[in-house]
């Protein structure tokens, strides 16, 4: 049986099961609601929230948004009808939409646990979060185990930044990596052939099969330094410091929570309840409850959950794909790196 036929049969089987689970008069609409396959007349369902902690009886809410793992743009093009994983950007857009649409959400608690990632992805997330400030909805960032490089860049979208007592953060800087295996290729008799126009001598600037020229090195360093300057400007604006003050800290160093506090990179050390209290204070609230967006899962997400319940293969394949992609295309990153 080919892949398309198998996918069709799976869809039909799920549709049949869904129709049996939904009361007969509402079967058609219920199935569409269950899998989020069509227009939903109850728009408020898109913005449902569920209690996390805090004052359960409070009417005002602080929305929890999480940025976890390596920061990437993700892939908007689904390679199959069953793209199980939602991208970081997709989840963030929906969280921010809820924060903007719901009047009862007065502030955002942004939890960051990330080594950073792509330069542009980090900058876009920072930009998206900053839009909340125009709506007078304050953001308090709480850094988890790691808030390094692009993770700290994103954290700077907060009006206030907290860190756990055991957090590690900083690594303000930019990195681009490649390798030169020219001698190894010669040793094993491998010959690489690159065809390029004489008018584009820099086309293979990061080729691992030849030395980089001084001119190419200067060209790449000008790009990296420009990205670094932007990082410094973002941090300086967020922390109310001069670029010169931040430059002294922006050598890629990592800091403990105590060191970061002493250097003015964060505003406090504490836990979620402390960050929540600060968010409520900035929003002018006496009390509030912390909530998360209650996602309405589509068919692809339900299938993904079902597969992951029975197998670790999807996670392994996703990791393997990420590793391969990371080494295929050289990239400029705001990312903390250990021996890569």
Automatic annotation (TrEMBL):
InterPro entries, per the entry: ClpP/crotonase-like_dom_sf, Pept_S49_SppA, Peptidase_S49, S49_SppA_C
Protein's UniProt keywords contain Metal-binding: no
Peptidase S49 domain residues: 132-286
GO function terms (MF aspect): serine-type peptidase activity
Gene Ontology BP, a term: proteolysis
UniProt entry tagged with the keyword tRNA processing: no
Signal peptide interval: 1-28
Keywords for the protein's UniProt record, in alphabetical order: Hydrolase, Protease, Serine protease, Signal
Family of the protein in this entry: Belongs to the peptidase S49 family.
Name of the molecule in the record: Signal peptide peptidase SppA, 36K type
């Amino acid at each position: 049986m080919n892949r398309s036929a198998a996918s069709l049969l799976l869809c039909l089987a799920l549709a049949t099961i869904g129709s049996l689970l939904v009361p007969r008069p509402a079967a058609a609409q219920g199935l569409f609601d269950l899998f989020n396959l069509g227009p939903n007349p109850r728009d408020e369902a898109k913005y449902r929230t569920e209690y996390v902690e805090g004052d359960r009886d409070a009417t005002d809410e602080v929305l929890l948004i999480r940025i976890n793992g390596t920061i990437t743009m993700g892939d908007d093009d689904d390679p199959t009808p069953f793209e199980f994983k939602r991208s970081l950007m997709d989840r963030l857009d929906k969280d921010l939409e809820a924060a903007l649409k719901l009047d009862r959400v007065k502030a955002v608690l942004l939890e960051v646990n990330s080594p950073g990632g792509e330069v542009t992805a980090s900058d876009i997330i920072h930009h998206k979060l900053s839009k909340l400030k125009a709506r007078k909805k304050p953001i308090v960032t709480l850094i988890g185990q790691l808030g390094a490089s692009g993770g700290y860049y994103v954290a700077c979208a907060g009006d206030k930044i907290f860190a756990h007592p055991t957090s590690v953060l900083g690594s303000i800087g930019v990195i681009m990596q490649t390798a030169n295996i020219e001698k190894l290729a010669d040793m094993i008799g491998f010959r690489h052939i690159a065809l390029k126009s004489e008018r584009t001598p820099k086309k293979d600037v990061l080729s691992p099969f030849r030395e980089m020229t001084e001119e190419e090195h200067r060209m790449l360093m000008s790009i990296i330094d420009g990205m670094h300057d932007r990082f410094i400007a973002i941090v300086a604006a967020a922390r109310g410091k001069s670029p010169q003050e931040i430059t002294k800290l922006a050598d890629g160093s990592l800091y403990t929570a105590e060191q970061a506090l002493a250097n003015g990179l964060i505003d406090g050390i504490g836990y979620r309840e402390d960050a929540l209290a600060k968010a409520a204070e900035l929003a002018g609230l006496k009390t509030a409850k912390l909530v998360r967006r209650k996602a309405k899962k589509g068919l692809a997400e339900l299938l993904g959950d079902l597969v992951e319940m029975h197998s670790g293969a999807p996670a392994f394949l996703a990791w393997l794909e990420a590793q391969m992609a990371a080494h295929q295309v050289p990239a400029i990153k705001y990312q903390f790196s250990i021996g890569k």
